[in-house]
Request: fold
Amino acid sequence: EPEVTQTPSHQVTQMGQEVILRCVPISNHLYFYWYRQILGQKVEFLVSFYNNEISEKSEIFDDQFSVERPDGSNFTLKIRSTKLEDSAMYFCASSTGTGANQPQHFGDGTRLSIL
Amino acid sequence: AQSVTQLDSQVPVFEEAPVELRCNYSSSVSVYLFWYVQYPNQGLQLLLKYLSGSTLVKGINGFEAEFNKSQTSFHLRKPSVHISDTAEYFCAVLSYNTDKLIFGTGTRLQVFP
Reply:
């Protein structure tokens, strides 16, 4: 069964540094998402992306964050200047379409640790 | 705005016993309802979903959930659990006009032999 793959599985970065988290969505999926889960807290939506544009974003997704689909297969989340509170598990997801009939498929996540 | 409350952060249970994981939601608009499971060091996997129709929905691995509109609940049940069901379970809602899944805080199901 096709999977969403995320790399790296664990990223350790110094505060203030830029970090790029990478995702390869399922190949025929057109809608892409990032969520994050701070340790011990709920999974939170960050952003959705379709047709090379952000469709929706949360209040968490401020100017420090950006997303990109640099080629036909990758979907990236960039954090420009990391803060301690950015430490979390970041999940990428993809779907064929919108709505509940096209469920979002999640990757295994990237654990981001900011020192 | 929508919110999801999972009343139990941890549920310990012995193997072959029944289990219910509780989920309540709040929303001013109609929503779809989901349960996801997260096994250790893995991503979120869809267990089941409620869109419309029959209020009892069946999912993978023998799980089922019942939608109760009057109580705004969507509790997850399994009549007999296995050790392999040990995982974190997340209830989530999706409103009709967005693709933003709203998750609860999760319930850790620990199955003991």
